[in-house]
Design a protein that fits this description.
The protein has 11 helices and no strands. By secondary structure, the chain is an all-alpha fold. The longest helix has 25 residues. It is found in: Cytoplasm; Cell membrane.
Length: about 210
């Protein structure tokens, strides 16, 4: 990823929740784009993969590469959601499913421990090969497949079947889903809750305006 200036993360908890939630919906958006077209915007992709392959960032803003625009695709989706505009229903379904799966993960201590071990190994891989190397992407996809995808509740990805069977595509899709889980956990850690999406839309909208 090209270096971007570090902007200090907002102190406002709602703004931090908005950034984390934007990561969830950016992951959902990229899953949809990969499944339908096989292509994604490089900056959006790199932001998610770098965030997920580094479970111990030095600061909150370091998680998303130091600038809110690295999460612009997710922020735009979130803005449509809180503004009651028409957003891609498939992306919304993926996003809310990721939040649901994150809650299931949080309540499964054994799986959390297993995932933590896997992420430590992936961090070592990323430091050796680079975060977006296909070995790292494959490991992220494998981590998702061996943990989150074992829940009875699963995300069924819709798209072009021929594209979804091409080399590295299943791994890239699962890596995006793993990124969605990473940002969903961050959202919860910052105080994000599902009910707030319903009852605190105005506060979330103000936070999104401040991030423009």
């Amino acid at each position: 990823m090209n270096p971007t200036p570090i902007h200090r993360a907002p102190e406002n908890p709602t703004a931090r929740q908005a950034l984390a939630l934007a990561g969830v919906f950016q992951a959902a958006s990229l899953v949809d784009e990969l499944a339908r077209t096989g292509q994604v915007e490089p900056r959006a992709w790199e932001t998610l993969i770098e965030a997920t392959s580094n479970p111990n960032p030095e600061s909150f803003e370091a998680i998303y590469g130091g600038h809110p625009n690295n999460l612009r695709q997710g922020l735009d989706t979130l803005e449509m959601l809180v503004g009651r505009e028409q957003a891609n229903p498939v992306v919304l379904r993926y996003g809310f499913s990721l939040l649901l799966l994150m809650n299931k993960l949080r309540n499964n201590r054994k799986m959390m421990d297993t995932l933590g071990q896997k992420m430590s190994h992936i961090q070592d891989q990323a430091e050796h090969f680079g975060a977006t190397h296909e070995n790292v992407v494959a490991s992220l996809g494998e981590a998702y497949q061996e943990t989150i995808s074992t829940f009875k509740t699963r995300i069924v990805v819709q798209g072009d079947p021929s594209l979804l069977q091409t080399r590295m595509m299943p791994e890239r899709v699962r890596a995006c889903l793993m990124a969605g889980i990473r940002f969903a956990l961050l959202w919860h850690q910052q105080g994000g809750r599902r009910w707030k999406l319903m009852f605190q839309r105005k506060a979330l909208r103000r936070a999104l305006d401040d991030l423009k």
